[in-house]
Design a protein that fits this description.
There is one protein chain. By secondary structure, this protein is mainly alpha-helical. It is about 50% helix and about 10% strand.
Amino acid sequence: MPQTATERMPPPVKTMWSTIDVTKFGPLKEARMARLARMIWSDGSFKKQFLAEPKEILAREASLILPAQARVTVVEEGSGGSAHFAVPATPPQSEMLYRFEQIANWWMMAHGFFFWMSRMEHGEKADALLEGVQVAFIARMWTDPTFRAGLLAEPKPVLEKETSMSFPAVKSYEDTSDRIHMVLPLSPKDQELDASFRSMGSWFMTAHTWWYWLMFPRLLSPAEPVVTDWVG
């Protein structure tokens, strides 16, 4: 007998990994978001429900409880002929170090691009990419008002200048304390590699979309009360 949509759903994410309780670990949030994406990709009716009631489903399936006044807008990757780029709300100064630590894995994504660009036809631009992103590219949105304004007004030229890559059309969305934008990644099987991925910038935006989907619950969760030091 064919499986029902409910039967196709992946099992809940465990909170014990290798006998360790990971309830307060950031990767648990990411694992829940990865599961949520799989649920959306595998069930069209569930996807419609998520688009209509994202806050409720985030609470139920990803344990992400948002403020009552927060409005959530979901856009699908690549819809409207543009890549979509969410500009996160600036955290309080007292949380800045804590949030820097949370987004540090973004640099690992950039190093991956440096590796692949060094092997491909864009290899001569690889060094410029690292120079651009190693100045805490995401964090600059929080600390440099001019840079933030540029990303909101004309994201494509700003991204191209910072990374030395050619980007597709890009549309930015500014998050605030009561307005949150989510970019829903396309299922890997729906990515039209030949038609859509015409530049490293296209790959970059797709990788960023998936990275941000996985980890943005960290930025929306309350900060831990004590930040002891830089992560070593």
